[in-house]
Request: fold
Amino acid sequence: MQENCRILISNDDGILALGVRTLANRLADAGYTITVVCPDRERSATGHGLTIHQPIRVDPVADVYHPSIQAWACSGTPSDCVKLGLSALLPQPPDFVLSGINQGANLGTDVLYSGTVSAAMEGAIEGIPSLAFSLCSFAHQDFAVAADFAVEFLAQLQADPLPHPMLLNVNIPPVPKAEIAGVRVTRQGLRRYIEQFEQRYDPRGKGYYWLAGEVVEDVEQPPHCGVDPDIPTDVEAIRDRYITITPLQYDLSDTQALQHFRTDHFHG
Reply:
């Protein structure tokens, strides 16, 4: 089954990042047909940005990837990479779009800024089942557990397909496989940052600012908008060393607000 399954992979850490190389090579070893289109440098926290005021350039990349993989370095953003892959570089649509494995968590409100999640969302927008993978550490360098889970999870999704194309945001605890508590389907939690702009000065004495926010993982429960509040949040489950799978959508409509305005406002 893997031999007939085509996968497009991108990321926001760049074409040479260890996470994406581990994921792509592991999937190629498992028999999947892999195309990689990644930024030519790190593009973290670019969100869903697109390049529209300058050309996008791509160059083939070899040596660091499995011989069967066609890999491209792209001058654009993660979203550019997936759009370009789907519209110009691939001869036919892939069966899955994957993003990652990201270095660092993408939990809670991180998904609004994440280039990793945005790249996968591009696939979902085009009606392709998509997955974003993140290893919840900026220091941990062993991506093997996350890559092995990706192989297992994809096999499961092939055997039992999703009811409709969607984005699944997957976060993996940075611990050995034996220490992972299990796998949980979660809802999006709350993860805020205390913004800190440090003022610095260049050699010519001109001031500039460097963003250095501090993460705050809220204990309070986020609004669930009809979702069962007993379903754990991704933030909670990661703390308990579970792999988290959070279904996301690009429709950001606030259903509670819509109901409020329908019943109480703007009559006539």
